[in-house]
Amino acid sequence: MPSDIEPALTIGAILGDSDSKNMAWSRQINVLSQKVQNARQDIVSPIRVNVVFHVDGKLVPNEFLGIRTGRFSKKQSKLMIQAAISLDPVEDIPTYLHRLLEESIVAAEIYARKRKLADDLPELLALVRGLDQTP
After folding, report:
1. Which helix (H) or strand (E) holds 26?
2. Does some domain include residue 103?
């Protein structure tokens, strides 16, 4: 079981550029990250999940589409999930990020089930589904 010191869910970002589009995504990812930090108190999960949003850009273009599983640390019981963000216009960025976050948790559940780490991750899904989506 993961340590109580480490949070059950964390969010990170990799920006592909430093232009205004990437900065707009970065600000909204930070808002979502803060909401997760405020909501994750007392959340315990059989594995910890780190969702990293990859914002496309000229300097560091995305090499994948959608969501993919990254590295799993058995020692830390921590799984990285990567979510690609293209620079196509999005009408409602907070809702879009929230959907990607939920899809990332579902991907983590699939990974955990396949490797018999957990049947599912209801604590994390409940946390994400309970987040306020307003900026």
Report:
1. helix 20-39
2. yes
Residue 134 in domain: no
pLDDT digits (tens, 9 = 90+) for 1-43: 444 578 999 999 999 999 999 999 999 999 999 999 999 988 9
CA neighbor of 82 nearest in space, from 14, 6, 128, 29: 14
**CA separation for the pair 113, 99 (Å, rounded):** 21
Cα 133–Cα 77–Cα 110 angle in degrees, nearest 5: 60
Q: Is residue 29 domain-resident?
A: yes
The DSSP element (H or E) to which 94 belongs, if any, is: helix 93-114
- Taking the whole predicted model, whether its pTM rises above 0.85 is answered as yes
Tell whether 3 is covered by a domain. no
Range of the domain at 75: 9-128
Tally of domains in the chain? 1
Burial of 5 (0-12, 13-18, 19+ CB in 10 A): exposed
**Assigned token pair, 80:** 């990285």
- Rounded to the nearest 5 percent, the helix, strand and coil shares of the chain are 35, 20, 40
